C-alpha cells in the first residue's frame, strides 16, 4: 500500500497503469504566503543520457536556484529530467544520520538543531522509500513493494513566496485509463526552471491539482539511491 506524502494524513494504494496520450497545459501564476527552508544541494551521482542546450553562468544559476528569475526563462521539462533510481532521505532523518545537517543549520540559522529536525521531520515525512523513473513510467516502493503508473506532462505552475522569491512545479498527470487508486498528479520541484538533469527533488502527489499547489509543509525529498547516508549529508552540507 502506498502512503501519501504525509503518512499522518491519508493512505493511497498503487496499481499498474499504461500511458496512451499526452497533454500539455499552460502555466498559471499562484500567490502563496509561504517561504521554503529546503536544503539546496546537488549530487553528481545521478546522470542520464540526454543533453540540453542551456549555457548559464554560475551566478545566474545561483539566482535561479534561489528562486529569482523571469517568466520567460521558464521552459517545459520532460519526465526524463528526473529519470533514475531515487531514495527518500526520511529514513536518514529518523535514524539520526542527518543530525549533523541540523546542527550546522543551527549554527547559522535562528532555530535550534532540535527545532530544525522537527521542521524537516514534517517536511520529509513519507512511506515511499524509493522511486524509479524510466521514460513515462514511475514506480513507487513502499515497504519494498513496487507499484507503477505512467504519467504525461501537464504543464507547470509558478509559486510566489512571502520571502519574495518564487518556485516552479512541473506537473505530470496519470493516464486516463489507469486505475483510480493511483494519484492523479505528480508535482516536481528541484529549484530548476528549464530542462536539466535533477540531482535531488521534492515531490508532491495527490488527486486535486490546485489543492496540491497549496501544500508547502510536506515535501518528500529524494536523492540518488547510489548515495550512502553519509554522502547525502556531505551534499547537504556543501551548500
Strand content is 25-35%
Uncertain runs with pLDDT below 50, 5 residues or more? 1-29, 31-56
Mean pLDDT figure? 81
Question: Helix/strand-derived class?
Answer: alpha+beta
Number of strands: 11
Please describe the topology of this protein.
Elements (H helix, E strand, L loop, with lengths): L1 E2 L7 E2 L16 E3 L26 H8 L18 E5 L1 H5 L4 H10 L4 H12 L3 E7 L2 E6 L2 E16 L5 E9 L10 E5 L10 E7 L2 H5 L7 E4 L4 H9 L2
Structure, described:
Strands 4-5-6-7-8-9-10-11 form an eight-stranded antiparallel β-barrel. It has helices spanning 58-65, 90-94, 99-108, 113-124, 209-213, 229-237; strands spanning 2-3, 11-12, 29-31, 84-88, 128-134, 137-142, 145-160, 166-174, 185-189, 200-206, 221-224. The protein is 21% helix and 28% strand. It is globular. The protein is built from six helices and eleven strands. By secondary structure, it is of the alpha+beta class.
List keywords for this structure.
239 residues, alpha+beta, 8-stranded antiparallel beta barrel, two-stranded antiparallel ribbon, 6 helices, 28% strand, disordered N terminus
Summarize the structure.
With 239 residues, this protein is α+β, with helices and mostly antiparallel strands. It is built from six helices and eleven strands. It has an eight-stranded antiparallel beta barrel with strand order 4-5-6-7-8-9-10-11. Strands 1-2 form a two-stranded antiparallel ribbon.
Amino acid at each position: 500500500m502506498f502512503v501519501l506524502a504525509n503518512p499522518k494524513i491519508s493512505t493511497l494504494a498503487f496499481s499498474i497503469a499504461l500511458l496512451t496520450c499526452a497533454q500539455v497545459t499552460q502555466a498559471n501564476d499562484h500567490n502563496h504566503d509561504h517561504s521554503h527552508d529546503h536544503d539546496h544541494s546537488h549530487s553528481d551521482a545521478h546522470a542520464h543520457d540526454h543533453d540540453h542546450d542551456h549555457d548559464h553562468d554560475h551566478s545566474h544559476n545561483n539566482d535561479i536556484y534561489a528562486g529569482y528569475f523571469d517568466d520567460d526563462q521558464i521552459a517545459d521539462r520532460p519526465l526524463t529530467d528526473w529519470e533514475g533510481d531515487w531514495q527518500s532521505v526520511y529514513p536518514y532523518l529518523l535514524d539520526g544520520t542527518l543530525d549533523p545537517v541540523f546542527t550546522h543549520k543551527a549554527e547559522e540559522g535562528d532555530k535550534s538543531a532540535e527545532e530544525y529536525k522537527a521542521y524537516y521531520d514534517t517536511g520529509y515525512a513519507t512511506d515511499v522509500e524509493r522511486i524509479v523513473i524510466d521514460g513515462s513510467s514511475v514506480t513507487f516502493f513502499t515497504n519494498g513493494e513496487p507499484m507503477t503508473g505512467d504519467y504525461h506532462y501537464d504543464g507547470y505552475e509558478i509559486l510566489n513566496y512571502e520571502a519574495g522569491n518564487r518556485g516552479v512545479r512541473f506537473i505530470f498527470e496519470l493516464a486516463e485509463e489507469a486505475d483510480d487508486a493511483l494519484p492523479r498528479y505528480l508535482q516536481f520541484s528541484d529549484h530548476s526552471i528549464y530542462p536539466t538533469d535533477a540531482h535531488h527533488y521534492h515531490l508532491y502527489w495527490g488527486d486535486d491539482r490546485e489543492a496540491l499547489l497549496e501544500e508547502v509543509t510536506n515535501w518528500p525529498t529524494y536523492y540518488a539511491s547510489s548515495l550512502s547516508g553519509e554522502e547525502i549529508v556531505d551534499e547537504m552540507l556543501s551548500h
